[in-house]
Here is the input.
Amino acid sequence: MDDNDIKKLEAHLKRTFGNPHVAVKARPKQKDSAEVEMKGEFIGVLYQDEDDDGSFLFEMAILAEDLE
Here is the structure.
């Protein structure tokens, strides 16, 4: 995932969530994914889709403790 992909994904997530505090950051040891943060807090990971070139998958875990 290059800088251009990261910029496009960050802009898309900001529009989609209606939140200017979304940030997409490269993962130094992983070239096929990036971390997603909101106001500096980790919320998920973006992966390049292996089956569809140019597409990405967003994975976000929601823990039981977060729902309390």
